[in-house]
């Protein structure tokens, strides 16, 4: 099983095949690529995070985090000094942000006003997905290789718990009421954790899902959206753990999003598509598959504007297979790293 960083930085890179699905909701607006922002530089990437209030986009990019203006795409600054960045979480006070440094086995805390690192907290092995839990004011860093979660008290800036997990964690979400959910990639399930008691409270199998990665949450209806290999999104009831639907999505997904205003769920797929699912209907039908760009498998949604941001790059030729590496991946073309801005027409 590839590591989280490998899965996202060098995706499956399948040749794009059209997944065009007609819009089935009457009057449904379609999404389109509104802009492309060239960032350049070298190295791979992982998750990206929108700060809707401050109009900032945080993008993990190798050993640094790029910070862009969400309206113009202009660089605001960057966070540097990491070994390999994976995710960015933001507190609910607008003051601090938190970066998971996978190869550094640490979480860095930064001041959002000046983008300065104020503390570095040791975590488990390969912290990857990261979330801020607002009820307990804690930060949850999910460690891919040690298969546990490091819980950090935001006020004290210190570790207050390390919770074992049933398998390798991927992306987490907090429900805003004291519960944290995370996909368990190698067990094909969702784990539920109590933030106050700091313990695992449930394991729910994701029927029909293989290697769940990205996860999104509908707080109103309490639905979880896990994107999986095998071109499947699994929709789960966050109260009971019951699987409600398994709509078909694009290939090689790695992130998900949910727009509460439009009642739409999204899957960003490495085959070069963005799948749009109508979450207002019981069948969770797919209403659009937007052609994006090969490798654009991570995304973030601005819930104020409805814009979606994806990142990808261009790739060189695939190297010849060897006995040690029977499925080599193409190299990333330097200075081709790009943000895709998706909006409604």
Q: What spatial form do the alpha-carbon principal axes imply? A: globular
Which fold name is given in CATH as the topology of the largest domain? Methylamine Dehydrogenase, Chain H
- Which structural class matches the secondary elements? mainly beta
Can you list the strand order of the major beta sheet? 1-28-27-26
- One letter per element, helices H and strands E, the order comes to HEEEEEEEEEEEEEEEEEEEEEEEEEEEE
Mean pLDDT: 92
Low-confidence stretches: 1-6, 9-27
Number of strands: 28
As for the number of domains, it is: 2
Percentage of β-strand residues: over 45%
**How far is the first residue's CA from the last residue's CA?**
39 Å
Q: Into which percent range does the helicity of residues fall?
A: under 10%
- The Cα radius of gyration reads 19 Å
Q: Describe the biggest sheet?
A: 4 strands, antiparallel
* CATH uppermost class of the largest domain: Mainly Beta
CATH superfamily of the largest domain: YVTN repeat-like/Quinoprotein amine dehydrogenase
Count of alpha/pi helices: 1
Q: Which second-level CATH architecture of the largest domain applies? A: 7 Propeller
């Amino acid at each position: 099983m590839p590591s989280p960083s490998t899965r996202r930085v060098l995706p499956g890179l399948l040749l794009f095949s059209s997944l065009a699905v007609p819009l089935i909701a009457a009057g449904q607006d379609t999404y389109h690529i509104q802009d492309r922002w060239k960032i350049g530089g070298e190295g791979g990437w992982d998750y990206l995070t929108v700060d809707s209030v401050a109009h900032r986009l945080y993008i993990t990019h190798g050993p640094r985090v790029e910070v862009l203006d969400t309206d113009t795409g202009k660089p605001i600054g960057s966070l540097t000094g990491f070994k390999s960045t994976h995710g960015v979480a933001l507190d609910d006070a607008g003051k601090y942000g938190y970066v998971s440094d996978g190869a550094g086995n640490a979480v860095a805390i930064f001041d959002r006003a000046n983008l300065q690192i104020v503390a570095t907290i040791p975590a488990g092995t390969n912290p990857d997905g990261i979330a801020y839990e607002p009820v307990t004011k804690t930060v949850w860093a999910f460690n891919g290789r040690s298969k546990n979660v490091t819980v950090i008290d935001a006020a004290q800036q210190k570790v207050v718990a390390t919770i074992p997990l049933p398998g390798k964690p991927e992306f987490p979400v907090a429900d805003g009421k004291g519960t944290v959910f995370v996909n368990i990639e190698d067990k094909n399930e969702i784990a539920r954790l109590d933030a106050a008691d700091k313990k695992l409270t449930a394991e729910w199998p994701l029927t029909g899902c293989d290697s769940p990665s990205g996860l999104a949450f509908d707080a109103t209806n309490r639905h979880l959206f896990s994107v999986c290999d095998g071109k499947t999104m699994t929709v789960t009831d966050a109260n009971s753990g019951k699987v409600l639907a398994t709509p078909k999505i694009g290939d090689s997904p790695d992130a998900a999003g949910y727009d509460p205003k439009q009642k739409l769920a999204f899957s960003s797929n490495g085959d070069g598509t963005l799948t749009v699912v109508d979450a207002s209907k019981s069948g969770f039908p797919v209403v659009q598959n937007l052609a994006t760009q090969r490798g654009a498998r991570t995304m973030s949604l601005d819930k104020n504007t409805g814009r979606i941001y994806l990142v990808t790059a261009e790739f060189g030729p695939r190297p010849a297979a060897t006995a040690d590496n029977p499925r080599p991946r193409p190299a990333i073309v330097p200075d081709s790293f790009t943000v895709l801005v998706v909006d409604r027409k």
